[in-house]
Amino acid sequence: MSNLIRGEFYKLRKSKYFIGMIIMSIAISFPFIEIWSGDIQSSKMLQHGMYSIHYSFMFISFSSILFALSAEDFIAKDFKNRNISKSFAYGYGRKEVILSKLIVFIMFSLFLELIYTVILVIYASMKYGFCDTLDTNAIMYLFRMISIGIIYNIATITVIGAVAIITKNSFFTFISPIILFIGYYLFFDSSLVSKKLFVVISYIHPYIRGIWAMGRFAPMLDIIAGAASSILILTIAIAGSLLYGKYEDIK
């Protein structure tokens, strides 16, 4: 399994889009800085680098398009063009191949996210300082914010990867984050949707639950629900991908 993961990393590094994705991640950090700079004018308490980390996790609603482009080339096209059969030739099973693809895709997506996060945090810290007072409460909040943010971002990234594996279609992979986020906001604004259905969706949507859980004074119930929602979606996405690989004729 470890050799398979290393092979996928090597394939990713040698791909044409590897450097392009990194450049795009750097490029999108600048509009993110503009959005953050505009929002903090109405809230002085957010004018610190530590709180910009919260924003970088929220920006997955935009940067997920970048992750979808990566999944389109790295996963969907590999399955569609049957390049995946080369791994079977070395004796690896479907489960190992799919898991290795997902692991490498998740790690690369987190790396891209780290790039624009570091740029945003450095900018905010140089302008306003990292935090007002780095006491125990601030450290605990920072730990909770990063932990919850990573969990719900991984859940979202895994859903995109699962769509790429199951559909093997570049178009559906690309629009998957649009459906995930834009569809939710349309759902949120629609007066035609059942309130009970809205409550159910809001409780299992990793992005919404994650945002609530990362709040500075979020109640313990929101924190637990945010982590549980992300773990649930992550489990469903991975299980769905593995079940697809088990019953679908992948060559």
Structural summary, described in words:
This protein has 251 residues and is mainly α. It has one domain (2-247). The chain is 82% helix and 0% strand. The protein contains eleven helices and no strands. The chain has helices spanning 2-14, 17-39, 49-58, 60-80, 85-89, 94-128, 136-167, 170-189, 195-204, 206-213, 220-247. Helix 1 (2-14) crosses helix 6 (94-128), helix 6 packs antiparallel against helix 11 and helix 7 packs parallel to helix 11. The mean pLDDT is 80.
Elements, N to C (H/E):
HHHHHHHHHHH
Describe the main β-sheet briefly. none
Rg, Cα atoms, Å: 19 Å
Unreliable residue runs: none
Distance between the termini: 19 Å
The tally of domains stands at 1
Number of helices: 11
Please state the structural category. Answer: mainly alpha
Helical content stands at: over 70%
Q: Could you give the count of β-strands?
A: 0
Percentage of β-strand residues: under 5%
Arithmetic mean of pLDDT: 80
Given the C-alpha coordinates, what overall shape results?
Answer: globular
Protein name: Putative transmembrane protein
Keywords: Membrane, Transmembrane, Transmembrane helix
Organism: Clostridium carboxidivorans P7
